Amino acid sequence: MAAQMAGRAGLAVALAALVGCATNPVTGRRELSLISESQEIQMGQQYAVEVRQSTGLVPDSALQQYVRAIGLRMARASERPNLPWSFDVLDDPAVNAFALPGGSIFVTRGILGYMQNEAELATVLGHEIGHVTAKHSVQQISRAQLAQGLLGVGSILSGEVAAVAGIASQGLGVLFLKYGRDAETQADDLGFKYSLADNYDVRAMRSMFEMLGRVSSAGGAGKLPQWLSTHPDPENRVAKTDQRLAGITTDLSKTKLNRDPFVRHLDGLVYGENPRHGFFAGERFNHPDLAFRFDFPAGWKTQNQPSAVVGVSPNQDGMIALSIPGTEAPDQALAKFLGQQGIVVGATSRSAINGFPAAQADFQAQTQSGAVAGRIAFVAYGGSTYQLLAYATAAAAPGYQTAFQQSIQSFNRLTDQAALARQPNRIRLVRLTRDLTVDEFNRQYPSTVSVTAVAFLNGVGAGTDVLKAGSWAKRVQ
Questions:
Q1: Contact present, 184 and 128 (Cβ < 8 Å)
Q2: Which of 181, 288, 338, 350 is spaced 20 to 30 A from 36 at the CA atom?
Q3: pLDDT band at 234 (very low <50, low <70, confident <90, very high)
Q4: Distances (CA, A) of 461 to 218, 453, 454
Q5: Which of 236, 264, 292 finishes a domain?
Q6: What percent of the chain is helix, strand and coil (3-state, nearest 5)?
Q7: In this predicted model, what pLDDT tens digit does every residue of 353-401 receive, in sequence order?
């Protein structure tokens, strides 16, 4: 039986490869592709909309246009010039950049803040363009679809329970797959090639990898660079970049770095977490822009994510998540949630929460991760309907009932004036009139972050490394 199954699987792979092959535009080789270009574009654009909505874009049209122009120029000179390319700067402090199928590319304000010049930006954009031109996502998804039927498999619960329970579905998790070492090397090769073809000083690729290594070692602005977590082996990549540099004949002294135009676009850019999008004061989560507050149980691990603020119990068997699903009335939102397949409804209530219209219910559900039980509430406030979801494993849920109810009932208007007035740190530029060590610069122009962070923002080591007269230096205020 096992041999027969293996034979059938091998035949299926062979047939799929026969009918689902396409020519790779970069290599010219025939390879497995179960997704047409139109499907690739449609998929990427669909999830690009989700990324923009869930994370948000930096509200700086000049910066957006600047990054977009650089990316489009290189993309249109690539092997796939006719894709509907897009380039956006996400309002995200994580040090990251990524590409979706079909040409939607994102960089974060977190990674831009640590860059020193336009050439560094070009090498990162070129790398992400390379993932698209070489169809790395298409290859990954085709393999997954062939092996597991991943794109056609939905979870038992398609709604909010499934999402926060971490159940696999075809969403962004499919698109943010880690690429293999060969794919990353190829994307580096392509990024190097595209940047050099656009007359950039490709030594900037080396400095980018060095910067990411420094930020990773020091923890940066409190976050491990995500670009390193999905783009591994930084030391090896520096060595490979040196090999590429040794093999070119271009006179790099005549290529462009464009430091001043790049750095000037960073003046005023938010650095680190933006408290206007919410911040914690102990167990309390305050959101100044939306003017609400919400309390998590003491001792829970909390995180403010783009689409929700969540807390996880110390034993990791319970979770509370607050999100804004829409503008439907609480009754309607609750009915939609409870109407999902697999939901078993318990006691319901229409009692207001701190004077705001609300609807809530106990529920149980069977997920791919096991049985869960908890409470769901929807609260109308400020023109939106907030979803308050608290659940735990079925075995642990009885012990969390009080904590769940206390957190749900804590949702209220934010009236603390200090919390309402909280502002983010921002990168500010200083034109240096003389050489200054990093320590001297930090004493003369104090920042709200450590001297080490200031050094990394300026692409140098801490302490006695020198910032040159005539250059723009970054500080944080």
A1: no
A2: 181
A3: low
A4: 11, 9, 9
A5: 264
A6: 45, 25, 35
A7: 999 999 999 999 987 778 999 999 999 999 999 999 999 999 999 999 9
Return phi, psi of residue 259, to 5°. Answer: -70, -50
> How far apart, in whole angstroms, are the C-alpha atoms of residue 109 and residue 117?
14
Q: Which helix (H) or strand (E) holds 346?
A: strand 343-349
CB 411, CB 353: distance < 8 Å: yes
Per the structure, the count of domains in the chain is 3
Left if phi > 0, otherwise alpha if psi is -120 to 50, otherwise beta: which for 146?
alpha
Tally Cβ neighbours within 10 Å of residue 372.
23
Residue 453 lies in a domain: yes
Q: What angle do CA 273, 276, 281 make, to 5 degrees?
A: 75
Judged against a pLDDT cut of 50, whether residue 2 lies above it is answered with no
Tally DSSP H helices, then E strands, for the chain.
18, 21
pLDDT digits (tens, 9 = 90+) for 171-226: 344 444 567 778 888 999 999 999 999 999 999 999 998 888 887 776 544 444 55
* CA-angle at 462, arms to 459 and 467, nearest 5°: 55
State both tokens at 253: 């002294």
Q: Which residues contact 261 (CB under 8 A, 6 or more apart)?
A: 66, 118
Residues spanned by the domain of 341: 275-420
Please list, in sequence order, all residues whose beta carbon lies within 8 angstroms of the beta carbon of residue 22, skipping any fewer than 6 positions away.
30, 31, 33
Q: Is the pTM of this model over 0.90?
A: no
What phi and psi values does residue 209 have, to the nearest 5 degrees? Answer: -65, -40
In Å, the largest CA–CA distance within the chain is 79
CB 377 within 8 A of CB 408: yes
Q: Is residue 16 part of a domain?
A: no
Rg (CA), the chain: 25
Q: Which residues pair with 348 in a beta bridge?
A: 361
